[in-house]
Specification:
Length: about 425
């Protein structure tokens, strides 16, 4: 990729960037019956055209002279950015990172910390004090590095779709909350979608040969399991139950809560549902030891005689989902181990299991703003808005009541943005 950039062949460099992303993930989603060729620039142009979207792919490039076992490692030295327009033009920008600055990883972490994006449990109880000036400064600095260099080739209509393909620590960055020099958030200017790779996004756009259903599954505040022998159960989430009840009313269905929301019962219904909403605890660090290579991440559900109440990322991968949308209204559900496959965790597992798209979170979400945002999101979907537009409008609506980005910027849409 770097050699091709040095030669000025930016389209070939973008193909190389894509070849290094989500390979196992792409093969998993494609299945055994579909032999996928290497990603090509023509495929990327087709995705941009079919979505009528601007694709923005980032590659974090380490400093030249730091290698471990022959592979580049260490502090990021520069950022490559490609922008593919709906008309098919490809723009390349190269951003050098100032040696005097904090590392890119540190900037991302400090921006999250300044927002108060800490903790592992949903609810206001774990919310850290927010340093608003520090947060604004960090978010503006990252905007200067990631958005300003390409601002001239981004769409001017805020309803036009911008697809972000992050890299490494950028998967943990709340892009929606980045601020320009005028203090406007990126979500105020653009409708955002996230994907681990352009080729993976392309696979989510292919109409699958699967049974469709109009069923909506809404789960909130299950009777909580305990982590480990002799431990106390996870704390209940009355706010999540209120949220689930409100969303169930929108779909004219009943929310599954408390003792009824067992893992086995929820899993059985997930495999036939078109929309799945799970308002509960997300456990980023929960380890499934079922296989030699551990996969982290779990969703808390009610335990029963046949299941422990932890629906793990690995277990999700082995489900057969037909859902157009799965929303994990819980904490840290968009996080996990960052690899060449993107973030290996719950979001990846849901897409691998067959979901067209997911909405997941980047931190411990507070109850009241999350409930408001989710209700607004589903109201937008019921008006016929596509998922990305509905999420943007829900963020703006929540922002008007709760200005702090901690309250509205945690959720990201991954996958197919099409309306329900």
């Amino acid at each position: 990729m770097q050699v091709q950039v040095a030669q000025g062949d930016y389209e070939a460099a973008l193909e190389a960037s894509e070849q290094g992303r989500a390979r196992a993930f792409v093969d998993l989603v494609a299945g055994d019956d579909l032999a996928l060729p290497a990603p090509t620039i023509d495929q990327m142009r087709r995705v941009a055209r079919n979505l009528n979207a601007t694709l923005v792919e980032y590659a974090v490039v380490p400093e030249e002279d730091f290698t471990v076992q022959g592979r580049q490692r260490g502090k990021a030295g520069q950022i490559f950015v490609w922008v593919v327009s709906p008309a098919g033009s490809v723009t390349f920008r190269q951003v050098a990172l100032d040696e005097g600055d904090l590392s890119l990883d540190d900037q991302v972490q400090q921006s999250r910390s300044a927002l108060g994006a800490l903790g592992r449990t949903r609810g206001l109880g774990v919310q850290a004090a927010t340093d608003a000036p520090a947060a604004a400064s960090q978010l503006q600095r990252i905007h200067q590095q990631l958005i300003d260099p390409i601002a001239d080739v981004l769409p001017t209509d805020p309803n036009d779709l911008v697809v972000l393909i992050p890299h490494e620590s950028l998967f943990y960055l709340p892009f929606a909350a980045l601020q320009d020099a005028e203090g406007r958030y990126l979500i105020e200017r653009h409708t955002l979608l996230t994907a681990p790779a352009i080729q993976l996004l392309d696979l989510t756009l292919v109409p699958a040969q699967k049974m469709t259903s109009s069923t909506t599954l809404v789960v909130g505040n299950p009777t909580m399991p305990a982590v480990g022998e002799g431990a106390n159960p996870l704390s209940p989430l009355p706010g999540a139950e209120t949220e689930a009840m409100a969303i169930a009313r929108l779909f004219d269905t009943e929310a599954i809560v408390g003792d009824a929301a067992t893992e086995s019962q929820v899993v059985a219904q997930m495999q036939n549902a078109n929309v799945i909403h799970l308002a509960t605890h997300g456990l980023l660090d929960y380890r499934d030891n079922g296989d030699r290579v551990p996969v982290f991440g779990a969703i808390a559900l009610a335990p029963s005689e046949t299941a422990d109440g932890f629906l793990t990322a690995r277990e999700i991968t082995h489900l057969s989902l037909t859902a157009q949308l799965v929303v994990l209204s819980a904490c840290d559900t968009g996080l996990g181990e960052v690899t060449g496959d993107g973030v290996v965790g719950l979001s990846r597992s849901l897409l691998a299991a067959g979901a067209d798209s997911t909405v997941v979170s980047l931190w411990a979400v507070p109850d009241a703003p999350t409930a408001d945002l989710m209700v607004a999101f589903y109201q937008g979907l019921q008006r016929g808005e596509n998922k990305a537009v509905a999420l943007r409008q829900a963020m703006l609506q929540t922002m008007a009541v709760y200005p702090n980005p901690l309250a509205w910027a945690a959720f990201v849409l991954v996958g197919n943005p099409a309306p329900l």
